[in-house]
Amino acid sequence: MSFTSLLLLREFLAIFEIGTAAHSQPRVSYFFDEQVANYHYGEKHPMKPHRLALTNHLVTSYGLPQYLDVFHTRWATDDEIREFHAADYVEFLQRVTPDNVAQLTKTFSQFNIGDDCPIFSGMYDFCKIYAGASLAAARRLLSGDADICINWSGGLHHAKKSEASGFCYVNDIVLAILQLLRVHPRVLYVDIDIHHGDGVQEAFYHTDRVMTVSFHKYDGEFFPGTGHIDERGNGMGKQFAVNVPLKDGIDDATYVALFKQIMRATIANFDPSAIVLQCGADSLGCDRLGCFNLNISAHGECVRFTKSFGIPLIVLGGGGYTIRNVSRCWTYETSVLLDVDLPNELPPTVYHEFFAPDYQLHPVLSGRIPNQNNAAYLNDVSRTVLEQLRSIQGAPSVQMQEIPPDIQQFLEGKILVKLF
After folding, report:
1. Angle at CA of residue 286, ends 284 and 289, nearest 5°
2. Which residues does the annotation place in the binding site for substrate?
3. For residue 268, is it within any domain?
4. Annotated binding residues, as ranges?
5. Are 366 and 284 in contact (CB under 8 A)?
6. Where's the active site on this chain (predicted)?
7. Which of 56, 135, 218, 271 makes the best surface tag, with the fewest CB within 10 Å?
């Protein structure tokens, strides 16, 4: 029996054991600031915040806001960003601009500024917008007013405590998880970006209160060069970093089956009380920087499966560099989170010509790269990861304390401005 067939059989046999959420409509909050799409890394840089405008226009044109609580939130403050990032690094981000860049070049190597992470106009404001949205998402989840919170501008998983990395300057994911940990005993982080979620893994590498699970390409050289299956955490965090290294060309059926098998075991063993899901769309086929064969439906099936457990969920963006496919993917995944079916024909928007020549929600993105993930390799990865998860021997406990003051302020309704 092939690897994929075996996993599908296991999926069928296990379906009655999954504790899924009730079939009532989930309460979904959606965070978007139109300004976030107006920043520009540079003409030849692959990161294009404009993809967020395309996404929001599609979400709106499909009529999805009628099912959403849509919020425009305040920007993150300097103090909030310093809850994870080092003070000298935050001070650098505050000060540096294209106009004074020559005066600060001596510190570039210290903070990893360069071609991947350039200095551009409004850079720190851009960071405060997307980080503020992720923080607001975490706080709304904590308030109990939403089951799912979406921030497609977030998910910048490479940023480290004291340096930029991989187009990421502020790690909004870590900031959001730190908020969740004020109330939730255990938070699960799941990353389906093609690049390893190294910044988040590093931040929580020594704790058992956050489990990080990353599905990514790994060959030791592909950026960021981390994510080997033997990276498992350290100290109290030993076994709580899970890495699923994949090779070029993985296809829909294999990826989804592997994802479901590992995530079912992860949730059963770790028993999270909240989940943060990073949906980097560079794992789609035909991505400018990617090398997988995933279609939008398969990417979205991972979102659907994660949602099915009924655990409070934050869904974030991340990578994705063929922007017409990024926007289609995140629009589709918004509909998945809402349990709303969308027609394949795209509705008209001001960006309609971006989607030529097919003008469809689900273009064919598969089959461009040979699949190097054979059954033997995938069986070995699956067996190793499942053995790691079994070694946890029960979810870790934590002594809970009184709700911190800043969360209490949110529960009293002092943070969000609802748009409609």
Report:
1. 80
2. 116, 166, 321
3. yes
4. 116, 166, 193, 195, 282, 321
5. no
6. 158 (proton acceptor)
7. 271
Q: Which positions of the chain have pLDDT values less than 50?
A: 11-23, 402-403, 405, 407-417, 420
Mean pLDDT of the chain: 91
Residue 315 domain-assigned (yes or no): yes
Range of the domain at 352: 3-395+406-418
pLDDT at position 393 is 77
Count of domains observed in the chain = 1
pTM confidence score:
0.91
Q: Which residue has the tokens 């699970």?
A: 213
CB hemisphere CA count around 315 (13 angstroms): 30
CATH number at residue 247: 3.40.800.20
Tell me the per-residue pLDDT of 157-183, one tens digit each, with 9 for 90 and over. Answer: 999 999 999 999 999 999 999 999 999
Q: Please give the pLDDT value at position 73.
A: 80
Residues identified as active-site: 158
